[in-house]
Amino acid sequence: MVKKILILLLVFSFLGIVGLCADEEIYQGTKKRIAVADFEDKSAHPWWTGDNVGTGMSDMLATALMESGRFTVLERQRVEDIIGEQDLVSAGRISKKTGAKTGAIIGAQFMVYGAVTEFEQQERGGGVGLSYGGIGIGVAGSKAHVGIDLRVYDTTTGQILASKRAVGTCSESGLALGVSRGGVNFGVGSFQKTPIGKASRNAIEEAVKIISEVLESVPTLSATEISGWEGKVANVIEDKVYINGGSNYNIQVGDEFVVYKSGEKLIDPETGESLGMVQGKLVGQIMVTSVFEKYSVCNVVQGKNFAKGDTLKTIK
C-alpha cells in the first residue's frame, strides 16, 4: 500500500502543482523618502483569526517599498515612539541629556494611506483526482483575492497625488495544498505559502508598481529640503572630507555644502531648554564626489582647516 501511495505522489510531482501567482519585477531608481500609515481594514473575513489585516498589509508594503531600492522608508511607529519620548522630555519626566532630541526626526516627502477592501480565500474540490490499486488521492483547489485602495499624499503641500486600487489574486490546485483558514500571522513562511499569502504579496507588488509610477515624475527632495537637516563632517583624510549623509539622505554627486565650525549652544535661562546653536565661523565650501549608503566623500571647493564635527548647510 505504501508503495502505491508513493507511486501516486510521484505522478503528482511530474504533473506539478498549478499556480497562477505572477512575480513582479523589482524596480530600481533614485530613492524618495516615504512613509506608510497603518491601513484601515474594510474587508469582511470572519474566517481569518490571525494578525490585524490592515496593519499586516501596511507592514508588507513598507517592507516591499524598501526592498524595491526606490525608497527610503520612514517607520511611522518609530516616529510615534520618538515623539512620545520628546513629549516626556518637554514635560520634565525624562532627562534632557538622555531623552530624544526635538527636531531629530527626518521627515517623509510622501505618505501612503490605504484601506484593505477585499481579503478572501475560497476552497474548492477535495474529491478523488487519481486512483491506483483502489487507493485514491483527492485533488483540492483554492482561490484567493486581495484588494487595496491606495492614496498617495505630498506631505509638503497636502496634495493627493494618486488614488488608485491594487489587486492581487492567486489560484492553486494540487495534492494536499495545506491551505490555512485563519490563525496564520503575516510575515511568517506558512502564511506566504498559502494562496491568501501569495495574493497579498501580488497586491503589494502591484501597489509598489503604482506608487513608483506615480512618483516617477515628482522631483526628489533631499532630506535638507524636507526637514532642515544639518549634517556633520565625519572625518577629514588627506584632502577628502567625509560627511555623515549618503543615499539615505538623497545626497547626490555634485551637491555642495558650506561648512561652519560648531557654535555655542544657547540655553533658555528659565526652562533650561536648548534653543539651538549660534552659527560658528565659516570654514569653507565642499562638493560631493562619491555617495555611499550612509556617508559621502567631498572635495574642498574653497577654505581650509576642515575638522570632524564641523556643521554642514546646503547651498540653495
UniProtKB/TrEMBL annotation:
InterPro entries, sorted: Curli_assmbl/transp-comp_CsgG (IPR005534), FlgT_C_sf (IPR038165)
GO cellular component: outer membrane-bounded periplasmic space
Keyword Lipoprotein among record annotations: yes
Pfam families xrefs: CsgG (PF03783)
Domain of life: Bacteria
This protein's record includes keyword Electron transport: no
Keyword field: Cell membrane, Lipoprotein, Membrane, Palmitate, Signal
PANTHER family per UniProt: CURLI PRODUCTION ASSEMBLY/TRANSPORT COMPONENT CSGG, CURLI PRODUCTION ASSEMBLY_TRANSPORT COMPONENT CSGG
Protein name as it appears in the record: Flagellar assembly protein T C-terminal domain-containing protein
Source organism (scientific name): bacterium (Candidatus Ratteibacteria) CG01_land_8_20_14_3_00_40_19
